[in-house]
Amino acid sequence: MSNTPTGTVNADATQILGSGRAIIEMKNVDKLFGSFQALTNINMNVGEKEVVVVIGPSGSGKSTMIRCINRLEKHDRGEIIVDGITLSNDVRNIQEIRRETGMVFQSFNLFPHLTVLDNITLAPRQVRNIPKGEAEKTAMELLERVKIPEQARKFPGQLSGGQQQRVAIARSLAMNPKVILFDEPTSALDPEMIKEVLDTMKSLANEGMTMICVTHEMGFAREVADRVVFMADGQIVEVGTPEHFFDNPQEERTKLFLSQIL
Amino acid sequence: MTDTAKAKESANLAPLHSDTTPAKWVKNNLFNNIMNSVITVVLGVVVVFLVVQSFGWIAGEEWEIVRVNLRNFMVGQFPSDELWRLWTSAFLLIGTFGIGTAAMAHNAYDDANEKGLVAERPSLLNLLARFWPVLAFVALMVSFSETLPPVVGVIAGVGAIVASRLVGWALPASIRSLAVPMMAIGTIVAMAVLAGTGGLIAMSAGVVALVIAASGLSRRFEGSDPKSMAIRTGGPIIIGAVTLVIVNAIGFDGFGWEDWGGLHLTLFATVVGIASGMPIGILLAIGRRSELPVIKGFCVVFIEFVRGVPLISLLLFSSFILPLLFPPSVETPETLTRAMIVIALFSAAYIAEIIRGGLQAVPKGQTEAAQASGMSAAKIQRLIVMPQALRAVIPAMVGQFISLFKDTSLIATIGVAEFFQFAAIANSQPNFLGKSLQLVTYSIIAVGYWSFAYTMSKESRRLEAQLGVGVR
């Protein structure tokens, strides 16, 4: 593994696996909340069809990092390039990037005043100007894909947590994004519902969707990830394949973290 | 098993209320011990006395004052030979809004059915249950009429409500979708008939606000792609402008509103306050949350100033000070126009703060989820944040509307005789002066205010239930 970093604290995650081009490039990204440095010199690339799982203790900057990619947080230094577009302060530029990146949140964030079907068709119709009939047809196909087509006419409040999160995944897929960012998608779920969401994510990964996934599900990381990125204190500490990462971690910090959770 | 135990058992098994005859109920609840029996007897005597007294009072000659002043209470000093304008505009509004609301109800019904939700088809009985206080008040007032036209008019009006609701429901879907523009046009024409082109500017502003409120705040986003939004908003404005131009060209000049008064003016001022206060209030609420210091500063100063002073002082300012500030070359708007503007701005400031509360209640994740899908800031506000904020504040908002409705009585202070003021005017008429008939006049006024305020309150609860507030 030539791309396995050792020794330095600030690991480089720019080496993508496979031959695909990079969809996301982060170069020397810093993020400050006031005087608190949330991200320090992040370097990471994500290639086409790659699944990158980001793990680390809470407060390590995992969520902040992926929220910088679609500008839900503004990074202070460095460069972020999504699908060839450099993220800048230009609103059109930001919206262009957001159209290409789906996002799934810890707390689902479905729109409670709209039906499941309207939740999914809203962005395609409003942002891509797709006609209603076509958008609904696509939405039904997506609901089939996440295995809850019978819930289409219900409101989010009538669904279980697992079903809501699967609707949220369908909603992000509806924009036909180049990459989907998962921000701890199973952390707010009851244990018995975690599996149905992880299964949906696995099948997405198998279909070749590019994904960055912040999670505490180590089983998922081991099974699905192409690369695992370990973060602590706002820095990328270690990067590697799941085998390398779980069986033969190099950094003390990584070993400590894994010993605490496994 | 003893007899008492058996009795207990049978009492437990018996279905509720099965053996409760009225006589038993009275015995168990009113005369179950000596103390309760005494209270029942005393209170019974008091109630009977009050009922007999009120019947005597209601049947008494005191009510002559209402009979004589009936028209004053309803429409003030509106000239007799111009009354046809009132009737015509009333029928226009009933007709277009009856058809429009029935059409919208049918659309919502189809929509709910399509979504597989439980939908109830509104019936005329349902309408009666919703608006009975207003209908009862109108019936009460009309019972004082000594001439036939008002009675015929009210009966015809009820007929028009029924007919227009039936027509609106029966219309084909393609026409039903035009309900909002149709109601907007109906309003413009009704206003044009009522006031001629006298209050042209105020009128157009009011109508534009009405239309924007109706289409922009629509909770259905089905038609919100740019093209249909443009048609729904632009269409009514263009048609309205053309209507106004035509009306103006015909020289349908009518007259200004210096002669308006009574309940008619009170209701008009309330509608103006709500219809223009809502859009302005929404803009102020959004502006107050803006990151641009100039916009935010303006909104904060405006809201806090208006909320910090009594409405009466603003009305007096608009009436007595404002004309002095106008340069001589500029024509000062009429007193009532200025009062309407004050009422609209006043209610906008309060509505803004209510809406700001609602906006804060919408979780940040809602905005983030919408942002993440690439929606523009304006669309996020209109389709995601505002609908949730507005439904959260329906009770507070309707409370503000009711408050505004009653506060319009303050325009009496600037010499305009609206509904409330006519109680005092009637009592100072030579025929009734010194007869202490205040109880009669103010009772009628109270019933009038209550019937509308209570209806608003009922409608608010209905709206909440319909939108599933607290459920979704």
**Can you give the helix content of chain A as a percent range?**
25-40%
Strand-pairing-aware structural class of chain A: alpha/beta
Q: Main beta sheet of chain A: strand number and arrangement? A: 6 strands, mixed
What is the CATH-assigned architecture of the domain at 262-326 and 333-355 and 384-472 in chain B? Orthogonal Bundle
Q: Could you tell me how far the N terminus lies from the C terminus of chain B, measured between alpha carbons in angstroms?
A: 54 Å
Query: Runs of chain A with pLDDT <50, length 5+?
Result: 1-8
Query: Which stretches of chain B are poorly predicted, pLDDT < 50 over at least 5 residues?
Result: 5-15, 219-224
- Rg measurement of chain B, Å: 27 Å
What is the ordering of alpha helices and beta strands of chain A? EEEHEEHEHHHEHEHEEHH
Strand order of the largest sheet of chain A: 6-7-8-3-9-10
Percentage of residues in helical conformation of chain B = over 70%
The major β-sheet of chain B equals:
none
Order of helices and strands of chain B: HHHHHHHHHHHHHHHHHHHH
Q: Give the CATH level 1 class of the domain at 262-326 and 333-355 and 384-472 in chain B.
A: Mainly Alpha
Oligomer: heterodimer
**Number of helices, where a helix is a run of at least 4 consecutive DSSP H or I residues of chain B:** 20
CATH superfamily placement of the domain at 262-326 and 333-355 and 384-472 in chain B:
MetI-like
Strand composition percent of chain B:
under 5%
Shape of chain A: globular
| Mean pLDDT value of chain B | 82
Q: Using the alpha-carbon principal axes, give the shape of chain B.
A: globular
Structure report:
Chain A is of the alpha/beta class. Chain A contains nine helices and ten strands. Chain A has helices at 62-69, 91-100, 116-127, 132-145, 161-174, 191-206, 218-224, 242-247, 252-261; strands at residues 22-33, 36-47, 51-55, 77-82, 85-86, 101-104, 179-183, 210-214, 227-232, 235-240. In chain A, α3 (116-127) packs parallel to α5 (161-174). The longest helix of chain A is centred in the last third of the chain and has 16 residues, at 191-206. Chain A is globular and about 55 Å long. The relative contact order of chain A is 0.19. Chain B has a domain at 262-326 and 333-355 and 384-472: MetI-like (MetI-like fold, Orthogonal Bundle), CATH 1.10.3720.10. Chain B is an all-alpha fold and 472 residues long. Chain B is 75% helix and 0% strand. The model of chain B is unreliable at 5-15 and 219-224 (pLDDT under 50). Chain B is globular. In chain B, α4 (64-75) runs antiparallel to α19, α12 runs antiparallel to α13 and α19 packs antiparallel against α20 (438-467). Classes of the chains: A alpha/beta (262), B mainly alpha (472). The A-B interface holds A 70, 72, 91, 95-96, 98-99, 101-103, 105, 107, 109-115, 118, 122-123, 125-127, 129, 132, 153, 155-157, 168, 171-172, 175, 181 and B 115-117, 219, 221-222, 224-226, 363, 365-366, 368-377, 379, 383-384, 387-388, 391, 467-468, 471-472.
